[in-house]
Design a protein that fits this description.
The protein has about 100 residues and is an all-alpha fold. The protein has three helices and no strands.
């Protein structure tokens, strides 16, 4: 029960990731999507959504891993957060032509 916030946050981030993958990028800040062309919106949404989904699923997996061993959560979360942020940063640089 101590790690219930991991599950809630993981589900929330995963749902946002799925929404972005489907092409709705309204959950992304307006200044992060202002230079994206209409043709690139689905590609941008898939890249950002994939990063969010990776992070969200890692939090969910970490929650269930706490039943087995609490120290393993860092080994699950940290690499997944790095990979997820890598996807998001890639999408920002490629489709928005910069971080801001």
């Amino acid at each position: 029960m101590d790690y219930m916030m991991l599950l809630i946050l993981g589900l929330f981030i995963s749902v946002i990731g799925i929404v972005n993958i489907k092409g709705n990028i309204s959950t992304v800040h307006s200044y992060n999507r202002r230079k994206i062309t209409e043709g690139d919106v689905p590609k941008y949404g898939k890249a950002v959504g994939t990063g969010m989904l990776i992070i969200g699923v890692s939090l969910i997996v970490s929650y269930f891993a706490t039943f087995w061993c609490e120290t393993v959560t860092a080994f699950i979360e940290i690499p997944a957060i790095v990979v997820g942020l890598g996807f998001i940063l890639y999408a920002q640089i490629k489709y928005n032509h910069g971080i801001f």
